[in-house]
Amino acid sequence: MAERSGMVEKRGAGHWFTHLGLIVGVLIIFFPIWLAFVASTVTQPEIVKPPMPLWPGGHFFENYRSALVSGINAPVARMLGNSLVMALGIALGKIAISLLSAFAIVYFRFPGRRLFFWLIFLTLMLPVEVRIVPTYEVVAGFGMLNSYSGLIFPLIASATATFLFRQFFMTVPDELAEAARVDGARPMRFFLDILLPMSRTNIAALFVILFIYGWNQYLWPLLITTDPQMNTIVMGIKQMFPSGDDVADWPVIMATSILAMVPPIVVVISMQNLFIRGLVDSEK
Q: Which of 47, 112, 174, 185 sits 20 to 30 Å CA-CA off 231?
């Protein structure tokens, strides 16, 4: 009995140490975000004069209002909208194309389907930075510079998502496809009524990842947008930093940085249950 109680005590100590380590890690990660939030609620002199305050000030609404309506080249509200359209377009476009591609590769028999799959998979070796010059030439040739289509279309193909959906579809029992065929369901009806609902958790997990991927894009928007009204929020934050002898408006910069974090955080929190199930579901 004593040995068993000792084992329980050791397990309990490990449990508390694990949670303590988790709390310390969260505090280390959260502290810079807290400093950015505090800096967005105080005045410029309070930031540049040490020591920097650790508690929010009384200029929250003033600084955030200034951030939303102002900007170096475009209002922050406009740049947030551009980033939101780009991130949603990339995430939804990648998922739609990947679902259809994986469906065709798994459920249709046509010559060279394995070759086409591996050609898609090989594009993982070619990130945007490698093919950015020919991609820019194609986008410019179609007249899609300074447009949402130019921001979205070159980035909506995803070999990773196609691979993941293919692997999931291959685990679906063949009896489902046979039953749908016997009931007279056409391929797209089988896809929409059976495969798509079964892929819900996988779609949610990929949507969160791809939304953040699209939201954080910097190089591609920087290359194809020359109109300030098409700037994204990541570009806007970079442009707010001073050059030369200019003085940075740190409260507005920090308020813009906090605003840039809000949409990804909302997406992650609102879809966290589906996101976790999509990553760890043993049936996928």
A: 47
